[in-house]
Amino acid sequence: MAGGGDSLRALLRAANALLQQRRYHAALAVIKGFRNGAVYGAKIRAPHALVMTFLFKSGSLREKLKSIAQATYAHSRNLACFVFTYKGLLAAQSRLQGKKIPFHSFLAACIGGWLVFGDNNPINSQIIMYLLSRILFGLSRLAVEKGYIPQPKQDPFPLLAALVWGTVLWLFEYHRETLQPSLQSSMTYLYEDSEVWHDVSDFLIYNKRTDSK
User: Fold this and answer.
1) Which residues neighbour 176 within 8 Å (Cβ) at sequence distance 6 or greater?
2) What is the rounded distance in angstroms from the CA atom of residue 165 to the CA atom of residue 187?
3) Entry's PANTHER family (predicted)?
4) What is the pTM of this model?
5) E-assigned strand segments in the chain
6) Domain boundaries in the chain?
7) Which of 41, 54, 105, 139 is placed for a possible disulfide with 79 were both Cys, Cβ 3.0 to 4.6 Å?
């Protein structure tokens, strides 16, 4: 029994010594990036899939749980593979050119995005839309910071909020098919289902009646 414990401790010491080797840092960072991508993807997708599935999807409990598991796995796998690809390509470019330059990040991410997120499916679509909104905010701030556009005299956020809500509700009312399915479901619940009721049960307690009255 003691021999087994000694062997485990020796293995852990060897692993820790390997992790401290600077020459293996780039390769180990790629591996840990894969690990972090998988964990983060699961943490982000599982609660979202749980809420959206039980709010808007029909079917048995088993079917719902299967849908949640599939969405969580897809998000976790894709993010893990992207981080692995991105960090691997960064390390390769840096090694080939002897230094790290800003273009390396852009090129590595472009290739990773094409390979991992290029398939047009609901999971990838949600991730790309999430990133796109933040990119637009980031580029706007960068443009002001660099002096490409003048610093606004007043906070432009109220105007942005008005335009965003005005546009999305116009699209929902008249060009609904252009919106992402989960957004359509959310807006249907908020703006259409609130127009229909029969009695107090589906006015205050439930969204829709489940009986055949």
Assistant:
1) 184
2) 12
3) PEROXISOMAL MEMBRANE PROTEIN 4 (PTHR15460)
4) 0.78
5) none
6) 18-118, 123-151, 154-205
7) 41
The Cα 61–Cα 132 span in angstroms is 34
Please name which of 68, 63, 76, 41 lies closest in space to residue 52, comparing C-alpha atoms: 68
What is the rounded radius of gyration, in angstroms, for the C-alpha atoms of the chain?
Answer: 24
Longest dimension (CA), the chain: 74
